[in-house]
User: Which sequence fits this backbone?
């Protein structure tokens, strides 16, 4: 699935958990097979419109097609009115990704202790900070674990700068995909809302 679809699946799961519904209970209410709900939440199947409509109805969510230039305004309104119950970071899967990022930071700290500071190390730290502020899809956990494994294998490597380039590229690619998919920041602080009448070109 795409990162945008990943975000939808994660939001559905968070909304289900916030309502205290099991997959079986949601299945009975929405008329969607429990096995299909499980596959949706785990990224094992593409969402069908009919399934999405049924699940959203039960979970008190609304579907809407929004003009692209209005997306920042809609996202801002959602952030400012959300009480955090549906935020990805409240789910266990999101906590796992944050924990993996913390392990990554600790591994970088070890590398800084053994080696002089490098441009790649500084860039890695910036990427980790950015990812900690973003809603990292649960499906990206394996990617984070792979990067952590790469970092653990760097201890004692003489040419650390060239060896850091691959894990750095992996993090940059992950961050860029999340940003371009429109995932929400993990912070729940209220931010000024955009006007729905604002135009991107200022005209």
Assistant:
């Amino acid at each position: 699935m795409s990162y945008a679809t990943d975000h939808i699946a994660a939001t559905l799961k968070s909304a289900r958990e916030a309502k205290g519904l099991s997959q079986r209970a949601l299945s009975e209410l929405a008329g969607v097979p429990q096995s299909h709900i499980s596959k949706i939440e785990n990224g094992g199947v593409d969402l069908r419109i009919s399934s999405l409509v049924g699940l959203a109805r039960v979970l008190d969510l609304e579907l809407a097609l929004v003009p692209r230039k209005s997306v920042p305004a809609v996202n801002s309104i959602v952030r400012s009115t959300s009480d955090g119950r549906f935020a990805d970071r409240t789910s266990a899967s999101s906590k796992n990704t944050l924990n993996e990022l913390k392990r990554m930071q600790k591994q970088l700290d070890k590398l800084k202790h053994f080696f002089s500071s490098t441009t790649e190390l500084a860039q890695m730290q910036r990427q980790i900070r950015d990812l900690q502020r973003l809603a990292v899809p649960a499906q990206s956990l394996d990617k984070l674990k792979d990067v952590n494994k790469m970092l653990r294998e760097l201890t004692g490597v003489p040419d650390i700068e060239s060896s850091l380039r691959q894990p750095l590229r992996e993090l940059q690619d992950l961050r860029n995909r999340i940003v371009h998919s429109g995932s929400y920041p993990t912070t729940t602080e209220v931010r000024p809302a955009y006007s729905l009448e604002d135009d991107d070109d200022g005209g």
